[in-house]
Amino acid sequence: MKLVLKFKWPIFIGLLALTAALFILSPDLAKQAENAGSFQLPDTADSQKAADILEKAGVSEETISLVYALDKPVDDARRQDVSAVAKKIESLGKPVKAVLNPFENEELEAQLVSEDKKTILVPVTVDGSHDEIIDLADKIHADILPKDETVYLTGEAIINNDVNVSAQEGLKKTELITVILIFGLLLIVFRSIVTPFVPLLAVGISYLLSQSLVAFFIDWFGFPVSNYTQIFLVAILFGLGTDYCILLLSRYKEELLAGHEVEESILNTYKTAGRTLFISATAVFIGFAAIGFADFPIFKSAVAVAVGIAVLLVILYTVVPLFMVLLKDKLFWPSKGAASHKDSKIWIAFSKVSVSRPLLSMLIVAIISIPLLLTYDNDLSFNTVDEIDDSKESVMGLNRISDAFGEGDSLPVQVILKKNEPIVNEKDITYLESISKDLEKVDGVKSVRTITRPTGELLEDLYVDHQITLMADGLDDAVAGLAEVQKGLKQVQGGLNEVTGQLPTGSAASSGGAGLRQAAGGIGKINEQLGQIAGGLEQGMPAEQAAGGLKALSGELKKVSNSLYGAANQLDGSTGQIGALSGGLTELAKGVEAANGGLGEIHSGLSDLSAMLQDMGDSKSVRDTGLFIPEGTLDNNDFKQVLDRYTIDNKTGIILEVILEQDPYSREAISTVHDIKETMERSVIGTPFEKADVALSGISVMNADLSDISTKDFTRTVTIMLVGLFVVLFILFRSAIMPAYMIGSLLLTYYTSVSITELIFVNGLGYDGISWAVPFFGFIMLIALGVDYSIFLLDRFREESINGKNVRDALVTSMAKMGTVIITAAVILAGTFGAMMPSGVLSLVQIATIVITGLLLYGLIILPLLIPAITVSFGRGVWWPYRG
After folding, report:
1. Structure confidence by residue, pLDDT tens digits, 48-103
2. Measured between alpha carbons, how far is residue 65 from residues 251, 827, 870 in Å?
3. d(Cα 380, Cα 773) in Å, to the nearest integer?
4. CB pairs under 8 A, 24+ apart, for 801-808?
5. Which pLDDT band, with edges at 50, 70 and 90, does 706 fall under?
6. What values do phi and psi take at 121, rounded to 5?
7. DSSP assignments along 124-143, one per residue
8. Which ranges in 619-698 belong to alpha helices (H)?
9. Measuring CA to CA, which residue among 88, 117, 114, 115 is closest to residue 101?
10. Quick check: pTM over 0.85?
C-alpha cells in the first residue's frame, strides 16, 4: 500500500487513460449479446442436431406469421386482399423464401383460417440473419400491410428480438436507478455530500473498464455473453463495490477518530478492512469463476462478473486510497459522525439472544424458514413470452393464434428423419402413417402432419380398403363395358345376317354369303365368350385371366373386321343391289372395330388392375401398414406442394409436424417432447427409417433441452462453486468448521428466499413457474454475495479472538462493530438489485426478488441469529483442526 500511495497519481492517470481508450475502442457489448441470441445450446442438444441437419440441407429457415384479426368472418374481398399481400411479400426477395397463401386451395384455407373465419394466418418462410428478419418485419408493416387493419407479425425471431429489446431497455433503467439509489443511500449512511462520489467514481471506473475488457474477450477468446451479462455487471459491481467502499471508508473513519495520521489510518484500514475485503472479493470471484465450468453458454455468461470483481479489486486498492489521501477528513464533510462507524444497537440486541441463548436463536430461525421451505415445489417456467409485456405485438399475435387455432398450432414440434440417400418413395412412405399413428397416441399430441397426411388427416386414397373399393367399382365398370360391347356385337351380328339375306341366290356374290354367315357365327361365339368373361368377373375371376381372355378375343375380332372390310371391297365394284350392300358391310366392319376398341380399353383397365393387385400382393408395406401408394403417384403435380413442404435435401429427409394440445412453452409440452422422442425411437424399429437419423426441432424441443442442460449444469456448477468456496474459506480462516456452517446458512437462506419468490410469482401472480434461468442465477448471486457478510462478521471475530478475547466476547464485539456495516451493505446491495424491478423483464425481476429477500433475510435474521449461535455452540472447537 505504501507503494500505491507513493505512485498514486501516475496509477490513477494511467487507469483513467486505459479506461477511456478501451471504452472508445471496445466492441458494443449489447450488440454482442443480441447476436449471441436468447438460446445458446450446445451441439449435443436435440434441437441443435436438428438445426445442423436443416442447415446442411439448405433449409435452415424460420417462419414468421402474419395474423389477421378480423371483426367479421372472411369474405371474397378479404380473400383477394390477403392473396395480394401474400404476393407482394413473396416479391420482396431475400430473406423471403416462400409465402403460404391461405386461399390458394381448400386444404390450405382449412388449415390457415380459423373455424369462425375471423383469424387468418399467412406463414412467411425466411432465411436470413436476425437483423434481416427484423428489418423484413418492419418493411412489411411500413410498406405492405394496410394501416386501418389489425394485422400482427409474430414468430420465434420476432419474440426473441422483443426479449432482447426489453432487456436492453431494462438495462438503461437499471443503470440510472442504481446510480440514483446508491447516491441517496450513501447520503443517508454517511450524511456527507462528498462521500457518495468516491464509491460512485470507483465503481463507475470499474464498470466501464470491466465492460470493455469483457467485450474484447468475447471477440478474442469467444467469451460467453448473453442479455444477463451487462445487467449483472451493473448490479453486482455497483452494489458490491459500494459495500466494499462502505467497509473501507467506515474503518478509515474509525482510524481517523482514533487520532491516527492520514497515511497511518489508510495503512491500518487496508491491513484490517482491506484484508476482509480481499477475502470477500476472492470468495465472490471464485463463486463467479466457477460458472466457467458450466456447459450452457447463457449460464457461463455470468463469468464476466469475475472479470469485474478482479477489476474492482484493483480500483479499490488504487483509486480509493488516492481520495483518502487527497481529501483527508474532508472526505466526510460536512458530517462529523457517520452512522456506519457506530455500534449497531440492533445487532447488540440480537447478540443477547444468539450468544447467550443459542438454542432459542436456532429455534427462531427454524420457525421462520421451515414453513416456507415446505411450500417449495421447484415449479419452473420456460415461457419466453412471459419475459415481455403482453402489449408487444409478437405476444398479441401468438395469443391470437392460440385462441383461434389451439395453443399447439402456433409452434409445432418438427420430427426430422434423415438419410444420406433418398428415402421418399411410394413403398417406404406408407410407414410414415404407422409412425404418425404412434405419435398421435402420445398424451399431449393433437395431430400429426406429413406427406401422407398434409392437413393432419390421412389421405383417403391411400387406404387399401378404399383402393379395393375403387377396384371393385372398376370391375363393375368392366362388366358394364363388356355388356355394351356384347350389345354392339349383337347388332353387328344381326346386320350381317340381314346383309347375307339380301344377297341374290345363284349369284357369285351369294357364294360370299357363306363367309359372312361364318363371320356372324364367329361374332356370336365371341359374344358368348364375352358373356362368360363378364360372368366370371362377377364371380371373382382374376383380372389377369380376364385380361388374357379379352386379348385373345380382341385378336379374333380383328380378323372379323378385316374380313368384313375385304368383303366390302369385293362388293364395291358390283352394280345394282349387290353394290349397295358394300357400304353396309363397311359400317358393320367399323362397328366391329369400335367394339374391339372398347375391348382394348377394358383389357387395359383390367391389366392395370391386375398389375396393381400384383404390386399390392408383393408389397410388404401393404401387409405392415394397410396402405398402398401406386407407383408414380409422387411424381404427380398434385403431390408437388406436399413434397416441397415435408421433404428436404432432394428427398433424403422427411419432416413430420407434431401439433401439441398444450401451450408449446409449457412444462407439459416439455414432458410431451420427451415422450415423442421415446416413441420415435420405438416406432422406427422394423421400418425403412430404422437407420435414419432422428432429430427434433421447435420451441418445445429447445425448452426440453434447456430443462435437461440447465438441471445438469446447476448441479455441477453449484458443487464446484461450493467446494471452491469451502477451500478458500478453509485456507483464510484456518478452520473446517466455520466454512461449513457459513455455506450451510447461505443454502438455508437461498432455499427460503426462492420459496418466497415462488409463493409471490406462482401462487400469488399466477405464473406457470419461476423462469428456468432464475434458480441458477439467483443461487450464484445470493451465495457469492451473501458469503461477504458472513466474512465481514467472522473475520472481525477472528481479529478480536487473536487479540485475546474469548468466543462469546469476541462475537459480541464483532456483532456490535459490524452490524451497521452489514445491514447498510445488505440494504444497498438489495437496492441495486431492486433497480432491476422496473426493467419489465420477468426473469430479472424474479432474480432480484430472490437476491433482495435473501440478502435482507440473511442480514437481518439468519446472520445475526444463526451464525453466532452455531459459533458459540462450538466454542474453541470452531477453529478445528488448527487451534482449539
Report:
1. 888 888 878 777 667 888 999 998 998 988 899 999 999 999 899 888 888 888 89
2. 61, 47, 60
3. 9
4. 807/871, 807/872, 807/875, 807/876, 807/878, 808/355, 808/872
5. confident
6. -105, 135
7. EEE-S-HHHHHHHHHHIIII
8. 620-625, 640-646, 667-683
9. 88
10. no
Single-letter amino acid, residue 52: D
Q: Is the pLDDT of residue 576 over 60?
A: no
- Classify residue 674 by burial, with Cβ atoms within 10 Å: 0-12, 13-18, 19+: middle
- 338 band by pLDDT with thresholds 50, 70 and 90: very low
Instruction: Name beta bridge partners: 694.
Output: 417
Residue ranges per domain, the chain? 2-26+163-384+705-879, 61-126+133-149, 412-462+627-697, 464-624
Is residue 142's pLDDT more than 60?
yes
Tell me how far the alpha carbon of residue 712 is from its chain's centroid.
18
CATH class label, 412-462+627-697: alpha beta
Instruction: Please give the Cα distance from 858 to 837 (Å, whole number).
Output: 21
Backbone torsion region of residue 232, taken as left when φ is above 0, otherwise alpha when ψ lies between -120 and 50, otherwise beta: alpha
Contact 722, 745 (CB under 8 A): no
| Contact predicate 164/33, CB 8 Å | yes
Q: Which of 106-110, 196-200, 391-395, 492-496 has the lowest mean pLDDT?
A: 492-496
Sequence-distant (≥ 6) Cβ neighbours of residue 305 within 8 angstroms: 232, 233, 236, 237, 288
| Cβ pair 266, 252 in contact under 8 A | yes
- E-state strands within 755-884: 770-771
Q: Confidence class of residue 339 from pLDDT cuts 50, 70 and 90?
A: very low
Could you say which of 3.90.550, 3.40.1350, 3.40.50, 3.30.70 is the CATH number of the domain covering 61-126+133-149?
3.30.70
d(CA 625, CA 176): 66
Output the CA–CA distances (angstroms, integers) from residue 739 to 596, 790, 791, in the order listed. Answer: 103, 10, 10
Among the ranges 375-389, 491-505, 618-632, 801-815, which has the highest mean pLDDT value? 801-815
